[in-house]
Amino acid sequence: LDVSTDEEDEIHHSSESKDDQGLSSDSSSSLGEKELSSTVKIPDAAFIQAARRKRELARAQDDYISLDVEHTSTVSGMKRESEDDPESEPDDHEKRIPFTLKPQTFRQRMAEESISRNEETSEESQEDEKQDIWERQQMRKAVKIIEERDIDLSRGSGSSKVKKFDTSISFTPVNLEIIKKQLNTRLTLLQETHRSHLREYEKYVQDVKSSKSTIQNLESSSNQALNCKFYKSMKIYVENLIDCLNEKII
């Protein structure tokens, strides 16, 4: 913490008075020593002033620890008073107004801006992909429609074409006798097929009759088999009954 100029002047005056007292005591002691021995040298004013400046510079440093308890206590007391004194605080017009944001808030804002930019870019990329997909679908639909139309046109043109008569082909001459002969041969063939169909029909009718007769025979034979089976079971039952009665009688 800084000390006011008035307090510094008071500290310097007190230190200088103490130094002067020390110098007077030193001078008196030096005179006594000079009287005792003429070999002792007395320091001049320049040496004393240089030593004083060294001491002042040492006191001005923060890590300086003074041997004078009263001096340190006064300096510390003044520092505490300057800290506790609200008048020593800078006025509103002397306070610095921060025009820049704090580093943390600035970083946060940069991070938020980067996140928002990333979101915007992702949304734009998604919209672009959707647009591309829609365009591809529309192009495919258009291609299909064009192909179907071409196929229909080709079919219509093929059906509308009329076969031209080729005059280069030679035909045999037509005669009534030839036509009559061909019709007779055709009629005979049809009659023969009709006769064969009649024969097959008669055969199928006979097969149906024979199958009916076999069914009747099988039905009658099945009744006889049932009767035979019934009589056999009845015989076994009677034999068992006779054996049982014989054992009881005995």
TrEMBL record:
Record-linked InterPro entries: GCFC2-like
A GO molecular-function descriptor: DNA binding
Biased composition regions of type Acidic residues, renumbered to the chain: 121-130
PANTHER family the UniProt entry points to: GC-RICH SEQUENCE DNA-BINDING FACTOR, INTRON LARGE COMPLEX COMPONENT GCFC2
Species whose genome carries this gene: Macaca mulatta (Rhesus macaque)
Name by which UniProt lists this protein: GC-rich sequence DNA-binding factor 2 isoform 1
Gene Ontology process terms (BP): mRNA splicing, via spliceosome
Basic and acidic residues bias (residue ranges): 10-21, 109-120
